[in-house]
């Protein structure tokens, strides 16, 4: 039985979510835009889910736009806002450790006249609010700072940066794909204009996401067609996925705090267990200001072996990931997050990401703590170990 | 009321590991450092200014710099100049390397075969790269122990199992040059950077084969060193 410690990549669908989705895969197949009974039922289901997703972040239902993924939400937020808002502001500011969905979109906007600035982070991956105070200005159109980072788990001071953006008259977007359902997010309490969520990161289905668009914020669509989702996202709605998303959001709202208490206990048990057995281990990202179930580790002197460690864990039945996605298609770019933290190129290869979720148990943590030291001990060392 | 004493937000979000803000507040008397786990407490939000190292503050300037001749940007992650990027062949799953295990007998003992997924690290003489590589075998010479493989990253090994050859020597690279700042001549040694080098470090090697192809200049480089 595989121990699944890769919940930042995706989460297993909660059985209650799957159950809620089931009818919408079969008998209830109507198109929400149809006027007959099947269509009306589908429309009601979509709108109920919209209420559920909105409630998770303190939004109004009409401020939720369903899309197909977190990546699409990020694209719509940045590209849509840039195209729709005043052209006398050309500044786009995003942090250096944003997900590629934000970074690449922001870079693409340069061809449309955007002046892109990447905000630095400190050695824990935290954005510096003072930097934003100095750089967000009357020429800034959009600021985007992720709520929590996918690689290192650090939670950003997004509410403070949102306030800085608002004060300067700029729009503020946060990629909350990792954060939604895991930490408190309330768009009534922070001046967030745009917020991206993905269902499959919170025990919902893949293929559905949402963009929160604050009432009054102008956005231009990036997908054109039949005018669904208030004209912002044309395409027949993914009804089953949206229903599942709604229930996943509701479950996260109802039991998120209890999940967090348990996940923090598991996280600390895992970190302390590894530290006790592997003196050369160190945590990447902020030690405390991190997602409840997120552990990013490296082993001093053995950072170049992260891939081998992940493979060994895989053989031992533990699904983990390297903090840097060293794959054929990304091998020349995986370290940008750790490089932005000031890691040298060698250390920037070394992250092991173990991310816990709702269905992980103490026994699984203990199993990994018992297995990991032996695997780490079998790794080649490039140099003397020092934490 | 305890939460008000220590200015906790009352969100009861559980992110600190306690069910309520009051429970955290009670524990703070014994473990004051726990306050760092409170995400929504304003005092916890901003690190001291001197901790912000602005490690990549130059990125902003880089991004807004006008597009330049690509030849002028041939610098590695240590800001050293090189002559060209070595690209992998479009028909290959990754960069092609000619390697030999430090104990060449391993090629036979492990029954290395075409299609096998392998891991190993290029130790010492030749590349000396500190990173373990993963890839798929495309040619094997059981007589000499020489293996040709394409470095692909761990996606394949994760799915299909793998063979670990331990340390190996990288004897040669094959790939494409699509742009270079100097003329490429056979028999000459050049600085180059494999496009997908995980450390983005320049290498040097001697070109001992050149072929003009539709995709670029096909070359083989041997006598490899990092730096």
CATH architecture of the largest domain in chain A: 3-Layer(aba) Sandwich
Q: How would you describe the shape of chain B? A: elongated
- The whole-angstrom Rg of chain B is 26 Å
- Classify the beta-strand content of chain B into a percent band: 25-35%
Family (chain A): Belongs to the class-V pyridoxal-phosphate-dependent aminotransferase family. NifS/IscS subfamily.
InterPro entries (chain A): Aminotrans_V_dom, Aminotrans_V_PyrdxlP_BS, Cysteine_dSase, PyrdxlP-dep_Trfase, PyrdxlP-dep_Trfase_major, PyrdxlP-dep_Trfase_small
Cofactor (chain A): pyridoxal 5'-phosphate
Pfam families (chain A): Aminotran_5
Question: Could you list some keywords that capture this structure?
Answer:
heterodimer; A: 387 residues; alpha/beta; Aspartate Aminotransferase, domain 2; 2 domains; seven-stranded mixed β-sheet; four-stranded antiparallel β-sheet; 10 helices; B: 227 residues; alpha+beta; five-stranded mixed β-barrel; 5 helices; 13% helix; EC 2.8.1.7 (chain A); pyridoxal phosphate (chain A); metal ion binding (chain A)
Description:
The complex is a heterodimer of chains A (387) and B (227). In chain A, 36% of the residues lie in helices and 14% in strands. Chain A has ten helices and 13 strands. Chain A folds into two domains: 3-9 and 255-377, Aspartate Aminotransferase, domain 1 (Alpha-Beta Complex); 15-251, 3-Layer(aba) Sandwich (Aspartate Aminotransferase, domain 2), CATH 3.40.640. Chain A is of the alpha/beta class. In chain B, 13% of the residues lie in helices and 31% in strands. In chain B, strands 2-5-4-3-6 form a five-stranded mixed β-barrel. In chain B, strand 8 (203-213) and strand 9 (216-226) form a beta hairpin. Chain B is elongated, with a radius of gyration of 26 Å. At the A-B interface, strand 4, helix 5, helix 7 and helix 8 of A face helix 3, helix 5 and strand 6 of B. Chain A: It is an enzyme of class 2 (transferase).
């Amino acid at each position: 039985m595989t121990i699944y410690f890769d919940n930042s990549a995706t989460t297993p669908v909660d059985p209650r979510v799957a159950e809620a989705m089931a009818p919408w895969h079969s008998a209830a197949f109507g198109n929400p835009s149809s006027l007959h009974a099947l269509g009306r039922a589908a429309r009601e289901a979509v709108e109920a889910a919209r209420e559920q997703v909105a409630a998770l972040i303190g939004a109004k239902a009409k401020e939720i736009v369903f899309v197909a993924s977190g990546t699409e939400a990020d694209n719509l937020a940045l590209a849509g806002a840039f195209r729709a808002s005043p052209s006398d502001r050309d500044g786009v500011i995003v942090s250096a450790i944003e997900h590629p969905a934000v970074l690449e979109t922001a870079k693409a906007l340069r061809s449309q006249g955007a002046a892109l600035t990447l905000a630095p982070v400190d050695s824990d991956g935290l954005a510096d609010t003072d930097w934003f105070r100095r750089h967000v200005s009357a020429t800034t159109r959009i600021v985007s700072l992720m709520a929590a980072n996918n690689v290192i788990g650090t939670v950003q001071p997004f509410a403070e940066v949102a306030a800085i953006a608002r004060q300067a008259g700029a729009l503020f977007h946060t990629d909350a794909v990792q954060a939604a359902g895991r930490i408190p997010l309330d768009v009534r309490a922070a001046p967030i204009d745009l917020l991206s969520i993905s269902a499959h990161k919170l025990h919902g289905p893949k293929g559905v996401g949402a963009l929160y668009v604050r009432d009054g914020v102008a956005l231009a669509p990036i997908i054109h067609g039949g005018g669904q989702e208030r004209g912002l996202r044309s395409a027949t709605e993914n009804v089953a996925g949206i229903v599942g998303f709604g229930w996943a959001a509701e479950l996260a709202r109802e039991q998120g705090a209890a999940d967090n208490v348990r996940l923090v206990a598991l996280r600390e048990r895992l970190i302390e267990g590894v530290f006790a057995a592997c003196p050369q281990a160190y945590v990447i990202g902020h030690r405390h200001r991190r997602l409840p179930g997120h552990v990013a580790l490296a082993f001093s002197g053995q950072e170049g072996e992260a891939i081998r460690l992940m493979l060994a864990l895989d053989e031992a039945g533990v699904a983990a990931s390297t903090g840097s996605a060293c794959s054929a298609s990304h091998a020349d770019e995986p370290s940008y997050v750790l490089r932005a933290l000031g890691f040298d190129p060698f250390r920037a290869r070394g992250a092991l990401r173990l991310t816990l979720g709702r269905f992980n148990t103490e026994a699984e943590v203990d199993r990994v703590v018992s297995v990991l030291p032996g695997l780490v001990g079998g790794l080649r060392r490039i140099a003397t170990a020092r934490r | 009321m305890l939460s008000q004493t220590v200015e906790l937000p009352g969100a009861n979000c559980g992110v600190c590991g306690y069910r309520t803000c009051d429970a955290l507040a009670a524990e703070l008397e014994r473990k004051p450092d726990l306050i760092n786990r409170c995400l929504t407490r304003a005092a916890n939000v901003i690190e001291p200014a001197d901790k912000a190292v602005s490690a990549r503050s130059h990125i902003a300037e880089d991004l807004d710099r006008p597009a330049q001749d690509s030849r002028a940007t041939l610098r590695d992650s240590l800001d050293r100049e090189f002559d060209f990027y070595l690209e992998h062949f479009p028909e290959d799953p990754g960069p092609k390397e000619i390697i030999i295990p430090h104990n060449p007998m391993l090629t036979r003992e492990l029954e290395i075969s075409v299609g096998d997924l392998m891991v190993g690290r290029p130790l010492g003489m030749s590349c000396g790269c500190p990173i373990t590589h993963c890839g798929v075998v495309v040619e094997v010479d059981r007589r000499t122990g020489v293996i040709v493989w394409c470095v692909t990253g761990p996606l394949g090994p994760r799915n299909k199992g793998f063979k670990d050859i331990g340390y190996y020597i990288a004897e040669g690279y094959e790939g494409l040059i699509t742009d270079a700042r100097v003329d490429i001549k056979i028999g000459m040694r050049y600085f180059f950077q494999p496009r997908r080098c995980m450390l983005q470090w320049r290498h040097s090697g001697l070109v001992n084969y050149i072929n003009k192809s539709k995709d670029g200049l096909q070359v083989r480089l041997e006598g490899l060193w990092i730096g």
